[in-house]
Amino acid sequence: GAGVSQSPRYKVAKRGQDVALRCDPISGHVSLFWYQQALGQGPEFLTYFQNEAQLDKSGLPSDRFFAERPEGSVSTLKIQRTQQEDSAVYLCASSSGGQGKNWGNQPQHFGDGTRLSIL
Amino acid sequence: AQSVTQLDSQVPVFEEAPVELRCNYSSSVSVYLFWYVQYPNQGLQLLLKYLSGSTLVKGINGFEAEFNKSQTSFHLRKPSVHISDTAEYFCAVTLPGAYKYIFGTGTRLKVLA
After folding, report:
1. Residue A83 falls within a domain, yes or no?
2. Quick check: is A44 in a domain?
3. Nearest Cβ partner for B99 among A44, A48, A91
4. How far is B69 from chain A (nearest CA, A)?
5. I need a surface site. Which of A58, A93, B35, B91 has the fewest CB within 10 A?
């Protein structure tokens, strides 16, 4: 598609359940990012992939969060044993930038996000 | 480490009036700066970016921003706003060669009829 696609748009889960959020980046984009946006806040970096390699997961808040991009295109963010503080909008972004390229000229393009509510 | 401060959490303005949304950054080295807009229930859309060169940057939808190194600011302006400009605006900073964006907390622009 023309833009970054995320699904589902809305997800409601009970505390303790596992959830999986999907991101389909812009075709051909090497780099993929996940952000967490709490209510009233700016997005905060979670993790970064270049192709299938997860080069940075420093922003993942706990070991309950896991992300993968096995074939270098679609990515899934999984949250295990969800807790109420996990409630947020999860944004995915992709970029044609990559290691050795000029990131400034390849800014990040964002999807519409998945709004996760944990009851 | 870099940081971004958006001083105003909300800015109400009447339609066709000018607006300025403030952004200040903190960094000991050169940075790249971005403004993104987020409409309700949507993702972030890039308005404009500053990498280097001319300090006045023009973006989409009639917005522009001016980079001021001495004041470490990158304020966003529009001479005449429309109802459709009602949205959340985020300033972001990153380092040249870096991929990680640091976002401000956002400014909610509300355009009044």
Report:
1. yes
2. yes
3. A48
4. 18
5. A58
| Residues of chain B with a CB closer than 8 angstroms to some CB in chain A | 4, 32, 34, 36, 41-46, 49, 51, 90, 92, 94, 96-106
Q: What is residue A14's predicted lDDT score, i.e. its pLDDT?
A: 97
Residues with Cβ within 8 Å of residue A4, at least 6 apart in sequence: A23, A24, A25, A26, A92, A93, A94, A109, A110, A111, B43
- Looking at residues B92-108, what average pLDDT do you find? 90
Task: Indicate the number of domains in chain A.
Answer: 1
CA distance B45 to A108: 9
CA-CA-CA-CA torsion sign (B84, A39, B46, B70): positive
* CB contact (8 A) between residue B34 and residue A107: yes
Q: Does A95 touch chain B (CB under 8 A)?
A: yes
**CA separation (Å) from A107 to A40, A83, B46, B66?**
23, 32, 8, 19
User: pLDDT tens digit string along B5-36?
Assistant: 998 999 999 999 999 999 999 988 888 999 99
Looking up residue A61, the CATH number of its domain turns out to be: 2.60.40.10
Say what percent of chain A tops pLDDT 90. Answer: 84
A14, A2, A5, A6: which is closest to A79 by C-alpha? A14
DSSP state string for B34-55:
EEEEE-TTS-EEEEEEE-SS-S
